[in-house]
Amino acid sequence: MKMFQNTITLRSYPRGFHLITAEVLQALPQLKEIQTGICQVFIQHTSASLTINENADPTVRTDFKMYFDKVVPEEDPDYKHDDEGADDMPAHLKSALLDISLTIPITRGRLALGIWQGIYLCEHRNQGGRRNLVITAWGI
Q: Could you say which protein family the record assigns here (predicted)?
């Protein structure tokens, strides 16, 4: 059994959905040493999230942002938690609706993503800042 782990800090992204597959792969070059295994990608934040989805057409990212902004609007008078501004509680809710951790199979030293799949950073804050990811891979 082999196990590798690396923590990376992503640059600051604007609010929206951003493909980060390349950054994840660059962070763990040892992935090539695993023939069959699992890769977990975990974000250490409560106002951003991760997902896997369409990696080719950028309108998917635009539509994701539009949808989540409609479903979880800012300025809702029922929100109590607004310590960091109008996007504070909506960012936490959007993160809870998506996920903070992804589990991806490893096959023959590569992530077993489908041809049209990519890893997204879902930035829910207007000024989210740099985001930390812990990337762990294990297998044989």
A: Belongs to the UPF0047 family.
Backbone φ, ψ for residue 3 (5° rounding): -140, 135
Determine, yes or no, domain membership for 81. no
Query: Is 80 inside any structural domain?
Result: no
pLDDT one-digit tens code per residue, 40-95:
999 999 999 999 999 999 999 999 999 999 999 999 999 999 888 999 999 999 99
Helices and strands per DSSP (H, E), number in the chain: 3, 8
What CATH number did the domain enclosing 98 receive? Answer: 2.60.120.460
Edge-to-edge strand ranges of the sheet holding 110-111? 2-10, 131-139, 36-43, 101-107, 110-111
